[in-house]
Design goal:
10 strands; about 25% helix; 10 helices; two-stranded antiparallel sheet; about 290 residues; alpha/beta; Rossmann fold; single chain
Length: about 290
């Protein structure tokens, strides 16, 4: 006997990672949600079951991973939106109230073109919710300083072909035609950053950070010394993910496929005003612990 729809939903959810912070950003009973790179559908099905969201859509490159979602979601696309001829159809332009990209943009060869293309499917009041790995996370920096860049699981996944710091993440979103409503740092450790803020100054940062060294006894700490005060920048070393909530920027934005043409990105970058560095950081909200 075949499993029922509710049994399939429960099974997929039980076998999927719980992306709590993206999930929390979607309100109860929200409708018209597209999960770009939905995988097996765990996030969408949890929104359906637990938040009673409706009109749920998935886009997933691999039909073997997502085939069971047909008949559960309102529509499932198995296509590569990076290809210039690929699209969702004109009836879905200005349609979605939420477009979700959790751990997807790092897998895209041309994320600038793809996000710009995706923008037209977002409704005028819609929100883009996006999360990517943070290249300034202490684990990346520690291993790079030791000469290691070993692809594998998690943040080092073999499929990661684009890497983002807070600044390149902001640039990606602005170049693609979005306005940023909020930036977030997902910090998977139960740390008290008020203690850092209470310090008179901070010019030395340890990798791993002091707050978690007791959990990693096999790693010899590396100390980095800075002339600047690093108290405001310190959370960047603890954050394994960067997240953003965005809306459509004004007007119509069209980008050609970038391919290997660096000039397109350089020209687009020249039109931006990004007055940020480690002394002048944008506002970023810390989401601490309890992330998955």
């Amino acid at each position: 006997m075949s499993p029922s729809k509710s049994e399939i939903i429960d099974q997929v959810i039980s076998q999927s990672a719980f992306r709590k912070n993206i999930y929390r950003m979607v309100p109860d009973q929200a409708r018209r949600i597209l999960d770009f790179g939905c995988g097996s559908g765990g996030l969408l099905l949890r929104l359906l079951r637990d938040k009673h969201c409706t009109e749920l859509y998935g886009l997933e490159l691999d039909p073997k991973v997502s085939g069971h979602l047909k008949g559960i979601l309102d529509r499932l696309w198995n296509l590569n939106l990076e290809q210039s001829e690929a699209g969702l159809g004109q009836e879905y332009e200005n349609f979605f109230n939420f477009i979700l990209l959790h751990d997807v943009a790092e897998h895209l060869y041309d994320p600038w073109y793809t996000l710009c293309k995706l923008r037209k499917y977002l409704s005028p009041q819609g929100k883009l919710l996006i999360a990517v790995p943070n290249l300034q996370h202490w684990d990346f920096l520690y291993k790079i300083l030791e000469g290691k860049f070993l692809y594998g699981h998690g943040l080092w996944h073999l499929g990661h072909i684009r890497w983002y710091t807070y600044l390149s993440f902001i640039e990606l979103l602005l170049v693609s035609g979005f306005e940023i409503e909020g930036l977030y740092l997902e910090i998977p450790y139960a740390v008290d950053l008020d203690k850092v803020r209470a310090l008179p100054s901070m010019h030395t940062v340890q990798l791993p950070p002091m707050e978690i060294q007791s959990d990693l006894p096999g790693l010899r700490p590396i100390s980095l010394t800075f002339e600047r005060d690093m108290r405001r920048a310190y959370p960047l070393f603890l954050a394994h993910k960067l997240m953003a909530v965005c809306r459509k920027g004004p007007g119509t934005v069209t980008l050609p496929p970038f391919g290997d043409n660096c000039d397109i990105l350089v020209q687009a970058r020249g039109l931006l005003d990004l007055p940020f560095d480690l002394d002048h950081l944008p506002a970023m909200t810390e989401l601490i612990g309890d992330w998955c």
